[in-house]
Design brief:
This protein is mainly alpha-helical. It has 7 helices and 5 strands. The chain has 2 domains: about 120 residues, Arc Repressor Mutant, subunit A (Orthogonal Bundle), CATH 1.10.10; about 55 residues. A 3-stranded antiparallel β-sheet has the order 2-4-3. A two-stranded antiparallel ribbon has the order 1-5. Helix 2 packs across helix 3 and helix 3 packs across helix 4. The two termini are about 35 Å apart. Keywords: Membrane, Transmembrane, Transmembrane helix.
Length: about 210
């Protein structure tokens, strides 16, 4: 990709990215490029599928990608899709989404051959997508509430308010440390194995 020094923009809430330059002669996709690619659900699903099966670096048939993307969209098994379901997704990927990801430098798209292959940048990029349903809270809100709650409890103990004053200070320190330790461990596990685009299984937002 041509251009000047890559632009750096703050990541929006719920998305974190990491891009490594794998070829000094070519500008890597910028944050804006990555966010543009991820702004569409079908492109997210296609990128997720490509990254999770990219073991040998071989091109993938667009028909295979379309079938899996359609299955995720409809919440069904790929073998149970109708012709119209597959055709609708295949047409949009063929005409727009695959060329767009190629333009952004994430894939190499052979429109004539009907195949898509991740570029080195597409392989190197790490994307963490946090999806939050109406019944859930984000990790950032969770840690804020946890911190606020610990401040209130420790403050009550420091002010000798009953029954908090009956618990030794060292015990409060252990409680606070343990809560943050287990919460951080849960966050690390969740982000690495549930929120990462390209992990085994469906995309992070499927089933939310």
């Amino acid at each position: 990709m041509s251009g000047s020094t890559p632009r750096e923009q703050n990541a929006p809430l719920g998305v974190a990215t990491s891009i490594e330059s794998v070829d000094d002669s070519v500008d890597p996709p910028t944050r804006d490029d990555v966010f543009e690619a991820l702004s569409n659900r079908r492109r997210r699903y296609a990128l997720h599928h490509l990254k999770r099966i990219d073991d040998d670096g071989e091109p993938v048939e667009l028909s295979e990608i379309s079938r899996q993307v359609a299955a995720w969209e409809l919440g069904t098994d790929p073998r149970e899709l109708s012709y119209d379901d597959r055709k609708n997704v295949h047409t949009s990927l063929y005409q727009f989404h695959a060329p767009k990801m190629d333009e952004l430098g994430l894939v190499q798209y052979d429109q004539r051959g009907g195949t898509v292959e991740l570029t080195e940048y597409g392989r190197e990029i790490d994307v963490y997508l946090e999806t939050v349903s109406e019944e859930q809270i984000s990790w950032s809100v969770y840690f804020f509430l946890l911190s606020a709650g610990m401040i209130v409890l420790v403050g009550a103990a420091w002010a000798d308010l009953f029954p908090f004053s009956t618990i030794p200070g060292i015990a409060w320190a252990e409680v606070v440390a343990s809560l943050f330790l287990f919460s951080s461990a849960a966050f690390v596990y969740h982000s690495r194995y549930s929120m990462r685009v390209g992990n085994d299984g469906p995309p992070p937002e499927v089933g939310e």
